[in-house]
Amino acid sequence: QVQLRESGPGLVKASQTLSLTCSVSGASITTGDYYWSWIRQPPGKGLEWIGAMSFDGIDYYSPHFPSDTVISRDTSKNQISLQLSSVTPEDTAVYFCANSDGLVKTSGITKDDFASWGQGTQVTVSE
Question: 56: closest CA among 81, 76, 29?
Answer without folding.
Answer: 29
